[in-house]
Amino acid sequence: MKLYRIRDWNCHYENNRTRVIENLRWVPVPNKHDGEGFRRLMAEPNGLVLYGAWHLILQVASKCSPRGTMIKGDGTPHDAASVSLKSGWRQVDDIQAALDFCSTQIDWIEVVIPETSGGRQAGVRTLSPNGMEWNGMEGIEGKGREGNADAPPAPEPGSLLDWIQKVRVSHPAMTRLTDEQIARSLNAWPKDRWEAGIEAFSRRYAGADLRAPLATLENHLAGKPAAKGERPKVICTL
């Protein structure tokens, strides 16, 4: 199953007001109408439907943790059906069409596909929440079970593996870390710090180039200032 993430969420869909709000009830959206992505979308025969579905996707993403990553509270990815259910728009095909168009024809959405924290294989994949290998855009491969099309079970909510997954989707740099490295960092601090700490880490460092992600996470959980090279630096794509 694909995991979708809104590209450059912190740059385009957060501002000084939203960054201090824990639970958003609204989301700021750019009103630029001369960008290539917008023009290409609106040139489609169903462009207005795609644009409306895109806004529903944004609104669901604004309530995820971390914001902008299409993941449910139980750690499983949102798909067109779950976005349809949460938003009330019953035409699931419209939501899927928007997810597909915005992730393949324009660069508004990233497709994030889990892989192992060990050796990398061909395909598009940027995180590994549960130690299973997911390769390519559609195919899934369990470790030692090539060709198995069944996704691995989601980790139990609240388990250490569940928290490791939440860390992995908090920033692309976390894909370089093993489960054991993330577990050691988490276990160094009381569990009641984890939820707020991971969410705040995701917002603070979205778009930043983290050269030492583990040290940055540990400093953040400890309340220490970031190292000079790890200060938040938002890099936006237009």
Structural write-up:
The structure is a single chain. With 238 residues, the chain is mainly α. It has two domains: 3-112, no CATH class; 160-230, no CATH class. Helix content is 37%, strand content 3%. A two-stranded antiparallel sheet has the order 1-2. Helix 3 packs across helix 5 (92-104) and helix 7 (179-187) runs parallel beside helix 9. The longest helix is centred in the first third of the chain and has 15 residues, at 47-61. The two termini are 28 Å apart. The model is unreliable at 114-151 and 232-238 (pLDDT under 50).
Short description:
The chain has 238 residues and is mostly helical.
Features:
2 strands, 3% strand, 2 domains, single chain, mainly alpha, disordered C terminus, 238 residues
Q: Rounded to an integer, what's the Rg over CA atoms?
A: 18 Å
Shape: globular
How many domain modules?
A: 2
Strand tally is 2
Largest sheet: 2 strands, antiparallel
- The portion of residues assigned to helices is 25-40%
Strand content: under 5%
Strand order of the largest sheet: 1-2
State the end-to-end distance: 28 Å
Topology:
Layout: E1 3-6, H1 9-12, H2 36-42, H3 47-61, H4 80-87, H5 92-104, E2 109-112, H6 160-168, H7 179-187, H8 194-205, H9 213-222
Antiparallel strand pairs: 1-2
